[in-house]
Amino acid sequence: MPTATEPRLDTLLASLREYLGDAPPALSLPPTAYTSPQLWELERERIFSRSWFLVAHADQLREPGDYVSVEIAGEPVVVVRGTDDEVRALSPICRHRLMPLVEPGAGHAEAFTCQYHLWKYGLDGRLRGAPYMNGNKDFEARDCRLPEFAVEVWNGFVWVNLDAGAEPISTHLDLTADEFANYRLGEMVQVDSWSLVWKANWKLVMENGHENYHVLGLHRQTLEPFMPGGAEVYVQPYSSWVMHLRIPLTVPAVAESLSLNEVQKAHGMLLMGFPSGAFIAMGDQVVWLSFLPLTIDRVQVVGGVLTTPDQAEIPETTARTQQAVTAMINDEDRLGLEAVQRGVGSRFGDRGHLSPKEAPGMLAFYRNLAHALLE
């Protein structure tokens, strides 16, 4: 039951419903939207169990047996390239006594073996061995396999949906084809990757990603000089799952091996995939990020830096320099958002008025959030 200081779930949902109108309030969410266990459980049911999450880049799955293991709101997922070259998303929970077959992270395996009782599964999820099970007349080894989730590789980005029958995410991502075709995303290679845990609610993190206003404060030395927080950000929603943002640059992006148009040279080209995946293209560099919800106040941040194959061969390429810069930016965001998460618990917390510099992107995110939770 909600406490005396915690609004009821229906009160929070009423606040969300306001963003579906023709004149949504230029206000942030109520502070309890980031702490309510009731809302978290509804998000697990209506968003996390049926949304597409960006979890990896295809370069992490080059060879049969390469895998990436993540967790989405308590549900473990392993994405692996099979011996048939197919990429699959499997539940890594042993069908015998529920021990995870792999820990979160990335690696390589010829098969997945449970360390509890040594049950072994192939890269396609089929059971390959179960010691001393022949004596159980009710057990059929051929019927035992790891459950599969929906998975799709789009221009090198690997997306997973816990709903095995989900509509393809490419249906929505393809709507942005004209914005990103010149970057030749499918040809890019990854030169850096990371996996971090931030102590913040996933919605706070995504609000941060939908506006550039915070660059004024959190990124004064790293981003503000060439991607100023006071610039006008263009926001184009394509569907309830995908939107595009253009962030003006003070210095045109250079990409000698790419034929970029004037708009692409003058902007950071950002794609946001609801609920929590994104990538931004700047010249011959692409940085991708995904914020996988773990608990009410924890997200796993996975991502990487991509560049063109020719630039990847140059030891001192700008894309490799971007690795250190991206790490600094990530840490600046982490410190800021973890502080905000502490702030939402204040008894004086209230909804904040949004600046015109942040409202377009944040209100678009709130609208998608409301659609997902209310419709």
Automatic annotation (TrEMBL):
Domain Rieske, chain residue ranges per copy: 52-160
UniProt superkingdom: Bacteria
Entry's Gene Ontology molecular function annotations: 2 iron, 2 sulfur cluster binding; dioxygenase activity; iron ion binding; monooxygenase activity; oxidoreductase activity, acting on paired donors, with incorporation or reduction of molecular oxygen
CDD domains the UniProt entry points to: Rieske_RO_Alpha_N (cd03469)
SUPFAM superfamilies given in the database record: Bet v1-like (SSF55961), ISP domain (SSF50022)
Cofactor(s) for this UniProt protein: Fe cation
Gene3D superfamilies (UniProt xref): Naphthalene 1,2-dioxygenase Alpha Subunit, Chain A, domain 1, Rieske [2Fe-2S] iron-sulphur domain
Keyword set, alphabetical order: 2Fe-2S, Dioxygenase, Iron, Iron-sulfur, Metal-binding, Oxidoreductase
Coiled coil: none
Pfam families found in the cross-reference section: Rieske, Ring_hydroxyl_A
The protein, known as: Aromatic ring-hydroxylating dioxygenase subunit alpha
Organism for this UniProt entry: Nocardia pulmonis
